[in-house]
Amino acid sequence: MATPIDPTAVAFLLAENRSMPMHVGGLQLFTKPEGAGRGYAREMYEAMSGVEDIAPLFLKHPHRSVRTGGQLVWKPDEQFDIEHHVRHNALPEPGRVRELLDLCGRLHSTRLAWERPLWEAHLIEGLRDGRVAMYTKTHHALVDGVSAMRLLASVLSTDPDERDMPPPWGVLPQRPRPEEHDDEDGDDGGRFAGVPVSALRAALGITAEAAGMPGALVKTLRKGLRNETSSLSLYAPRTLFNQSITGSRRFAAQDWPIERLRAIGKATGTTINDVVLAMCAGALRAYLIDHDALPDAPLVAMVPVGLNAKQSHIASTEGGNALGAVMVQLATDQADPARRLGAVHRSMKDGKEALSSMTPVQILAMSALGQAPAILTPMLKMQGILRPPYNVIISNVPGPRTTHYWNGARLEGTYPLSIPINGMALNITCTSYDGSMAFGLTGCRRTVPHLQRLLTHLDHELQALERAALG
Amino acid sequence: MATPIDPTAVAFLLAENRSMPMHVGGLQLFTKPEGAGRGYAREMYEAMSGVEDIAPLFLKHPHRSVRTGGQLVWKPDEQFDIEHHVRHNALPEPGRVRELLDLCGRLHSTRLAWERPLWEAHLIEGLRDGRVAMYTKTHHALVDGVSAMRLLASVLSTDPDERDMPPPWGVLPQRPRPEEHDDEDGDDGGRFAGVPVSALRAALGITAEAAGMPGALVKTLRKGLRNETSSLSLYAPRTLFNQSITGSRRFAAQDWPIERLRAIGKATGTTINDVVLAMCAGALRAYLIDHDALPDAPLVAMVPVGLNAKQSHIASTEGGNALGAVMVQLATDQADPARRLGAVHRSMKDGKEALSSMTPVQILAMSALGQAPAILTPMLKMQGILRPPYNVIISNVPGPRTTHYWNGARLEGTYPLSIPINGMALNITCTSYDGSMAFGLTGCRRTVPHLQRLLTHLDHELQALERAALG
């Protein structure tokens, strides 16, 4: 009962190695319902592991043998063991968020074995404030960050009294898609949420083509990266983030009220997404100064954005929107926070305009570069493009806007863990939820030392932007 | 800097698959030193993970490539990451021994990835009685149960005030071998402890030869198993333990005062090892009756024993003793505990006498069968020997006789986790330490349901033997 694996998933499976596990992760924090006892985390674990029907996505594993002609196929796991995939963990003393992030970093460092379905979920108790955490890990061949977020959202409810809700790997009753998952300020980023998983897949399909090296695509990509007059052509300096990585991961996460970001945006005529990027820019600058490693030239971030309806005719067979990527100058050479925000805003605007004037193939090439750099980078090297096309990936995935619950447990926050790759040792992914903007920083533990200090820098930068914008 | 892998280790690596992880485990329970604070487990973890010099055994991983001509070699891990190998865990509420055994079963179920050195150690806090646990997992290609026990013993001290002691994976200062590791009653089992690892390896070397199927050896083995007049030839019935297994593990463990076993032995003229086997016999009988699955014919256990000096001339190049295997009738068809003990005693005695009359090649064949059934069983099948040669493996590995400490933490107990294989879904390994006999039961979670009930049966059987022997 083997089924074919789509070419993109194959590419993600084959790109993986010990230094580059190809799974995305998510950390969720829940508050117990009122009246829940000490054993609540266990009850939650039992509800999650006791589910009868598992969605087929979570039952298959990659398989390759002589009988499949050496081709990778999906095979149902005939010894499927839910206790392997859903686990009950606890934090060591003193049970601070620090211990939780340490555990997530460790869990995120280990590859998923191909001999079993490519996912794990860990219910974690022992936070001293009594909250319960869940860390999930899913191979990029199954989902990407956006669809993982949607999967989670699809099992949550706004009703604290709803019960008998399945976990994300359970078989879901069909529900209408809630409208509210759109981004707060109607930024392009918001369109991510409207993209069905299958359309994302279609958009990503290009990466497999690219891995097969169709000459025209490669040429377009080279032209785009080298054309001095295009805003796609940026000079990205080498930084400590742009090295080979190991398989060790560190994870840092924190959230801030979106209201604070919105106030800055309003006062300066910028978007919330611009403020997110400016926070990252300032934090990266401070971090690199700490390490005496700030390059003269400004850092460049690759920022995935949604494409509007006019642009999207190229990508989707299901009416969804496609993804594009914008290269944003982070102005890390500027000492002044307000100037950095202004520069980021202009660079983002230029990039989007450039996108809108690009041909469909150019957009697809950028999209491929944004979504699957691990696959494309070796190809670029073979084509003589050795400089990193950008320094860091910063993405912003919108989540539910209002408070959500899982069987009465209130979701307090949700934090994404992403995929550092060779040459791109740090990934910053943000998710908005219930009035907060969460930053999830995933880095190679060896290449990016003291990753958690970036959180302090992010906080300082937000304060500095407030002082600059609001006086 | 690749180094060759000895043929036995290669055989263990190649025999491994998802259903049959080939690692041995150990669970140790420690009591904190007086005055230790809440953070003691963390201090212990930091001492264990902070070690500067790691023994080479723990730094190499198997590697195979075109450059090695497709041969497996050991390669030093150039990205060695101690935080991957030494981990700090905690138990969920309520932190009973049950939660600890669950965690060990789960950790024991997952294969060690070849891309890293083949070991893990987990320091586990959160036992409600305040003890700290350590679970270690080491591939059989690196150590066997006996050498793992010796490795642990080698870093412990009888002095509660000794400090700055390295963990088992640290580089050890050379010390004289303590004499006291011999078995309590001078039983043959005791000789295990005197066998240097390299001699064990030499004895095990035969398995690789066997895998290569030298005709003479196979013939000897077949003759031994079929010869009606030899005590080696036993009829082992099919039981629920003798099925294909999955990769899920359950672990159960408990210890009893050796004094109780010794009293029974004294009163009945049997050895402590006989009493261990009789406890297992009675427990297996009760367990199989519970499942309405007791066969008419008595079960047969494969029991590894040491060989005395006269027999050992064949095995060791370093003057150590070799291992042999005795097939012991467990008399599970007998309802009376005293009769079972008597029958086990006679069967063990016969088996040892038979061993002493065997030729060196016969002994080696038995030894290979005992040590590497996973490797030999397919070979036996190819030779038309389809019946399981025995139903269960019961081994008894002596440990230190007196109280030992690691940097002031008192070792309370040590429990072995072993390797179930296809056709042999349950493994019972016992270790003696500080006046207690610990039983470690490792089984396939699906094939051996309610494994933990065997502990209750063991306890009942010990009481029944006491009533029978002591009145």
UniProtKB/TrEMBL annotation, chains A, B:
InterPro entries attached to this UniProt entry: Acyl_transf_WS/DGAT (IPR014292), CAT-like_dom_sf (IPR023213), O-acyltransferase_WSD1-like (IPR045034), O-acyltransferase_WSD1_C (IPR009721), O-acyltransferase_WSD1_N (IPR004255)
E.C. number(s) listed in UniProt: 2.3.1.20
Alphabetic keyword roster: Acyltransferase, Glycerol metabolism, Lipid biosynthesis, Lipid metabolism, Transferase
Domain O-acyltransferase WSD1-like N-terminal: 10-276
Top-rank lineage group of the source organism: Bacteria
Protein name as annotated: Diacylglycerol O-acyltransferase
Catalytic function, reaction form: an acyl-CoA + a 1,2-diacyl-sn-glycerol = a triacyl-sn-glycerol + CoA
Family named by the database record: Belongs to the long-chain O-acyltransferase family.
Enzyme class at the top of the EC tree: transferase
Ranges where the O-acyltransferase WSD1 C-terminal domain occurs: 320-465
Pathway(s) annotated for this protein in UniProt: Lipid metabolism; Glycerolipid metabolism; triacylglycerol biosynthesis
Record-linked PANTHER family: O-ACYLTRANSFERASE (WSD1-LIKE) FAMILY PROTEIN (PTHR31650), WAX ESTER SYNTHASE_DIACYLGLYCEROL ACYLTRANSFERASE 4-RELATED (PTHR31650:SF1)
Classification via Gene3D superfamilies: Chloramphenicol acetyltransferase-like domain (3.30.559.10)
Region (Disordered): 158-191
Pfam families: WS_DGAT_C, WS_DGAT_cat
